[in-house]
Amino acid sequence: MYRTILIPLENSPADETILEHIRPLARLMGSRLILVHVADGFVARNQEQLDLEDSEEIRRDRAYLEQRRAELEGEGFDVSAQLLCGEPAREIPALAEREGCDLIAMSTHGHRFLTDLLLGSVASDVRHRTRVPVLLVRTPPRRRVADAD
């Protein structure tokens, strides 16, 4: 049913929420996992056009993705990782389509309506831009607090 699962990561403690949730499902289904992080800062969005070298943030993100990929591979999963640059709400559905994903699995921060209205929600935008089923798992408060550190 879920042969290929796309897992957007944000390089924060909240990532553990979705990874904990998806491991048993992926193991049961024998799913291939694709980890993705979309760098969306100014340098990341304009790196190619301006012919810039990798920023420290990009280097950290790439190392983080590789660490997570190796960790899951060590647990026996078929996993790859991609670092993309741009608008996460556009890049995630586009990658899911290119890779033929059966599921996009994301963690959410559980913001309130007003916060989502003012700041927007990547998870909400992704689910409106794709035909691929989206699994949203709310990050527990203890992990959201760790985010603020």
Number of domains: 1
How does the helix and strand content classify structurally?
alpha/beta
**What is the alpha-carbon Rg in Å?**
15 Å
Low-confidence stretches: 113-120
Q: What order do the SSEs take from the amino end to the carboxyl end, as H and E?
A: EHEHHEHEHHEH
Global outline: globular
Mean pLDDT: 83
Give the N-terminus to C-terminus distance in angstroms: 38 Å
- In what order do the strands lie side by side in the largest sheet? 3-2-1-4-5
| CATH class descriptor name | Alpha Beta
Number of extended strands = 5
CATH homolog superfamily: HUPs
The CATH architecture name reads 3-Layer(aba) Sandwich
Q: What is CATH's topology name?
A: Rossmann fold
Helix content: 40-55%
Q: Supply the number of helical segments.
A: 7
Strand content: 15-25%
Largest sheet, if any?
5 strands, parallel
Write the layout of secondary structure elements.
Layout lengths: L3 E5 L6 H15 L2 E8 L2 H9 L5 H19 L3 E8 L2 H11 L4 E6 L4 H7 L2 H8 L4 E5 L2 H8 L1
Parallel strand pairs: 1-2, 1-4, 2-3, 4-5
Key terms:
5 strands, 52% helix, 149 residues, Rossmann fold, five-stranded parallel beta sheet, alpha/beta
Structure report:
With 149 residues, this protein is an alpha/beta fold. It has a single domain, classed as HUPs (Rossmann fold). Helix content is 52%, strand content 21%. The chain contains 7 helices and 5 strands. It has a 5-stranded parallel beta sheet with strand order 3-2-1-4-5, with helices on both faces. Strand 1 (4-8), helix 1 and strand 2 (32-39) form a beta-alpha-beta unit. The protein is globular, with a radius of gyration of 15 Å.
